[in-house]
Model the fold of this input.
Amino acid sequence: MNMAFREKSIGISLSGLPEEAALGLSLRAISLIIIVEIIFQGMLAVSNRKAAEHGADERDTLFAYKGNNFGYTVLAIGVFISLGWNVLLEINPAFIAQSNVLKVPLLTAHILLFSFIFSEVVRFSAQLYNYTRCD
Amino acid sequence: MTTLPIKNKIRELRFFAEEMTQKELGELVGITQQTIIAIGKCKYSPTLEVAFRIAEVFGQSIDEVFHYQSA
Done:
C-alpha cells in the first residue's frame, strides 16, 4: 500500500497508545510507549530516509490541523467533566458517599489522564481517516 | 469518497512532459508523491500556491491546468 511517510508515522503512534494505556496507565506503560515510539519511528525514518528528511507538506499539515481539532475537542470535554466533578464535590461533599462506584482514589487525575490518552487516539485516528479518505 | 469540484489535467501534462513521474513532479513542486496522487485523482484540492507551482512546472497558466466543475 502506497502510504505517505506521515501516515505510517501516525499509524505507529496510534497502535502504541491504547494497548499500553490498558496496562494501568502506570509509569512503566508510559516508558514502554516512549521506547516503542523511538524504535518504530526510527525504523520508519531509516527505511524512508528521503521522505523523513522532506518533512510535512501542505496536505500533511492540513490533516494534522484537522486531527488536532478533533483531539482538542475531546480533551476539552474531559477537562470540563473533571472540573464539573470537582465543583459537584465542592457543592455537595456527601455526593461521593452516596455512590460506591465513584469512590475511586484520584478520580480527577484518572479522568484527565483518560481524556488525554483518548484525545490522542482521536487525533491520530482522525488524521489516518483523512489520509485513507484521500487516497 | 466523491471527487472534489476542482479538476485538473495533471495526468495529461505529465504524459506530454516525457512521462514525468508523480515522484519527479512532487520533487519539483515541493510536495510528496502521495499528495500529487491525491491531487491527480481530484481527492485533494491543492492550495493556490501549490497550484501555481504545478502550472509553472509545465509552463502553463493555472487555468490551463485546473478548472472548477460544479456538481
Q: What stands out?
A: Chain B touches chain A at residues 1, 30-35, 37-38, 43-44, 46-47, 50 (CB under 8 Å). The two ends of chain B are 14 Å apart (CA to CA). The first strand of chain B starts at residue 6 and ends at 8.
